[in-house]
Amino acid sequence: MPERYHDEIRRLPLFSDLSDESFISLLQGAYVQNFPPQITLIDEGDTSDFLYILVSGAVEMFSTWNGRETSMDTIRPVTTFILAATVKDAVYLMSARTVEKSRLILLPSENVRRIFETDATFAKCIVTELAQGYRSIVKTSKELKLRTSLERLANYLLREQARGGGGAAEFDLPMEKRRLASYLGMAPENLSRAFKALQPYGVEVAGSRITINDEADLRAFAKPSPLIDDASI
Amino acid sequence: MPERYHDEIRRLPLFSDLSDESFISLLQGAYVQNFPPQITLIDEGDTSDFLYILVSGAVEMFSTWNGRETSMDTIRPVTTFILAATVKDAVYLMSARTVEKSRLILLPSENVRRIFETDATFAKCIVTELAQGYRSIVKTSKELKLRTSLERLANYLLREQARGGGGAAEFDLPMEKRRLASYLGMAPENLSRAFKALQPYGVEVAGSRITINDEADLRAFAKPSPLIDDASI
DNA sequence: CGCTATGTTGATCCATATCAATAAGTGTGG
DNA sequence: CCACACTTATTGATATGGATCAACATAGCG
Q1: What's the domain count of chain B?
Q2: Residues A34, A105: one domain?
Q3: Residue A187 is part of a domain; what is its CATH number?
Q4: With B163 labelled, which of A65, A169, A207, B208 sits at a CA distance of 20 to 30 A?
Q5: A147 shares contact with chain B (CB less than 8 Å)
Q6: Domain limits at B10?
Q7: Residue A223, CB, less than 7 Å from strand C?
Q8: Do B196 and B85 fall within a single domain?
């Protein structure tokens, strides 16, 4: 694996506290690979052979059952994914595909489990990462069960405005609307109508460009809660 | 804390590999407490002061937003809960209440974090526990998004038959129907109707007593998948 | 420039929630 | 141990959120 990636991986919270020795050992047999869009990286049910690190591009986590499919999450650089399956040496519960041209690092799961066994620091970092992931999906579950699809969209827009839009009134949706619909648990047609239904609250849509004219008004409708919408807790 | 509980706690996967020294240290300031039914143990949003271990009884994890409430999980002995909040020293994302007379052990979160920092074995056990919890809620999320309420009920019955019923055709629901409805993400009235809708597949209901007359038939409808329904992976 | 996938809009259908009334449990105190 | 009160469960009627189907518009992309 090219040296130029070392620093980037090193900077991830999961690896930052690792000893040099463990870090080198972890990278044995790792490799970097580029993928075009729409390539399936992981099929749910397969055994966990690699821990993935997304270096550039975007990856969608999704699941299927009985001919239906739902988008579970969209991964942005630089992030690891499917850590839980790796440390448990269990099958993947979600599938993954690239949504755009992406560069990924593949760490042999075997390495991760070996270093995890021998390096206490690494174990602690994994705990932090897993706890974060756990709490993140708890919030998603709460949102799914407690909010209507319109409320989910309104809160999503507020979160995305803060996260990707830097708080500005205008920002771009970071994914296709059909995938956003699936992520929010609704049909694509419904998302179109939901956007219209938010017009009275000052939401304007032009393609993927969103304008929130009156954030206070939208917040009054969305009623965001830190215990669902705050990514940092 | 009475010595008689030591063995029971020790037997939990989370603590079984702990050194005696760490274990003693962990129990400093811990105490055992009995609670009547319907007592709120945890309010979501509060800071994590204790790691809870349920010794007997049952505890419901639930969440609220905007005047609505949903049941997230029901904890059965002997299990710890809210581990993620404890290790992250973060606020609780879910509330907890007893559903029946329950006995709990309260371990100061401070202890858990201290031992976690110093005892590599404990860190590894926490990883396993968190990874398990993470995968468990991923399955729940998949089920919520991919299945209708009738399908969720059918699969729930099959899981419960295997788990609590030991595979027998007859078994008792382990909770009130209103709570089951909330857990499955439906209104109580809908659960009643859903039970009726499963009659053609051989499901009989008498109070909390469930009889599955033709498991193959019910399975053909429910289409259980290990990637959603198998608790052991 | 035209093909194909995505997005929008309208019409309709279906699943599920809500409202209302009754029935059945469950627990409590006399 | 029974009677009352209160909660939970069921059933029916209705409303509604959201899905589906179909037609069309639009936008990417080769």
Answers
A1: 2
A2: yes
A3: 1.10.10.10
A4: A65
A5: yes
A6: 3-144
A7: no
A8: no
Q: Is A130 on the interface with B (CB under 8 A)?
A: yes
pLDDT for the residue numbered B78: 86
Tell me how far apart the alpha carbons of residues B42 and B29 are, in angstroms, rounded to a whole number: 19
Residue A126 sits at the chain B interface (C-beta within 8 Å): yes
D chain positions with any atom within 7 Å of a protein CB: 8-13, 17-22, 27-28
Q: Is B56 in contact with B81 (CB distance < 8 Å)?
A: no
Q: pLDDT for A153-211, tens place per residue? A: 999 999 999 998 788 999 999 999 999 999 999 999 999 999 999 999 999 999 999 99
Q: Is A127 on the interface with B (CB under 8 A)?
A: yes
**pLDDT score at B9:** 86
Query: Is A136 buried (19+), middle (13-18) or exposed (0-12) by CB count in 10 A?
Result: middle
Q: Does A47 touch chain B (CB under 8 A)?
A: no
Do residues A167 and A79 both lie within one domain? no
Residues from chain B that touch A144, judged by Cβ atoms under 8 A, are 141, 144-145, 185
As a whole number of angstroms, the distance between CA A79 and CA A70 comes to 21
Distance from C-alpha of A198 to C-alpha of A160, rounded to nearest angstrom:
15
Choosing among B146, B180, B219, which should be mutated to test the A contact, i.e. which has the most A CBs within 10 A? B146
Let me know whether A97 and A166 are in one domain. no
Distance CA A112, CA B39 (A): 42
Q: Which of A42, A134, A183 to mutate to test the interface with B (most CBs of B within 10 A)?
A: A134
pLDDT in tens, B62-118: 999 999 999 999 999 989 999 999 999 999 999 999 998 999 999 999 999 999 999
A100 and A158, same domain (yes or no): no
- B56 CB contact with strand C at below 7 Å: no
From CA A88, how far away is CA A93, in angstroms rounded? 12
- State chain A's mean pLDDT as an integer: 94
B100, B118, B144 — which closes off a domain? B144
CA-based nearest distance B49→chain A, Å: 16
Residues B72 and B131 in one domain: yes
For A66-84, the DSSP string reads TTEEEEEEEE-SSEEE-HH
Whether residue A21 is found in the same domain as residue A126: yes
> Is nucleic acid strand C under 7 Å from A188's C-beta?
yes
